[in-house]
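Work Package 4 report. The design task specified in the project plan requires that, given a folded chain encoded as structure tokens, an amino acid be chosen for each position. We show below one input record used in the internal validation round.
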């Protein structure tokens, strides 16, 4: 019962801090809407380039435009959810370099919770784009008889949530390494930016070693590719979804462990 009350307290505190952060960001409405539109346009252009190639050649390694749109949509939605709920975890380096983390340590809330609620932003542009691409993809695949919409849609929403948790776990683990290295931008470029770029496309286009890397040591392929193999391609079984859930649980466990160890070893700029 005590743990339940503590969990409810943390959730209530999180929602309160998010509301304050969002209210603060809305004081600069132009920046908010410009950033929203710009991010949506950038993501749209990236998918448009893929769509042009698929329209010209018909398919890539057996993946049609609708199937590729599914991969892209799930990634965009999962990443938007992750960055909405934990934006400044990704930016831990600036807190370490500037010493601003010391101020968070003095607050009567867990440091991770404080970071997750700072500079909260609703990734509206990416969410709308991802939702539109997902609607197009599922509608096209259902029309072709490749899927049963009433089964795939709820499972896809669960996959998006699981993908967001997986990306958060990887992002948290990468950020936590900053407690020892301080400068982690290059590492983040590999574990987040490059990895996210790679899984926009079917893994079948990559060499075997890279496909293995993205499915094991850095398991971002479980955000969209492996679930899609089961849900829309009909390959593999339900074990792919179970493995995706296991991958996110493992990433969260490793990320939480590294964060806890790193925070204990952190040397304040004032010490």
């Amino acid at each position: 019962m005590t743990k339940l009350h503590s969990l409810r307290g943390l959730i209530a505190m999180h929602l309160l801090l998010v509301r304050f952060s969002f209210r603060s960001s809305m004081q600069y409405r132009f920046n908010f809407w410009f950033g929203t539109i710009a991010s949506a346009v950038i993501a749209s252009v990236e998918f448009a380039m893929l769509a042009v190639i698929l329209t010209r050649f018909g398919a890539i390694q057996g993946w049609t435009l609708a199937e590729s749109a599914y991969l892209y949509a799930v990634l965009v939605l999962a990443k938007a959810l992750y960055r909405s709920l934990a934006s400044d975890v990704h930016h831990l380096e600036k807190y370490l370099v500037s010493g601003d983390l010391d101020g968070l340590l003095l607050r009567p809330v867990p440091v991770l919770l404080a970071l997750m609620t700072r500079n909260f932003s609703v990734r509206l542009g990416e969410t709308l784009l991802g939702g539109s691409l997902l609607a197009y993809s599922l509608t096209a695949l259902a029309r072709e008889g490749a899927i049963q919409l009433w089964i795939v849609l709820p499972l896809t929403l669960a996959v998006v949530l699981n993908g967001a948790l997986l990306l958060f776990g990887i992002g948290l683990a990468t950020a936590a390494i900053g407690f020892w290295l301080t400068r982690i931008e290059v590492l983040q470029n590999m574990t987040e930016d490059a990895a996210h770029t790679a899984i926009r496309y079917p893994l079948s286009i990559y060499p075997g070693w890279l496909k293995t890397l993205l499915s094991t040591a850095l398991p971002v392929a479980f955000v969209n590719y492996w679930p899609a193999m089961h849900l829309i391609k009909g390959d593999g079984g339900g074990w792919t979804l179970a493995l995706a859930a296991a991958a996110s649980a493992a990433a969260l466990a490793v990320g939480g462990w590294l964060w806890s160890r790193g925070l204990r070893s952190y040397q304040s700029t004032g010490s």
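The chain has one domain: 2-265. Validation will be extended to a larger panel in the next phase.
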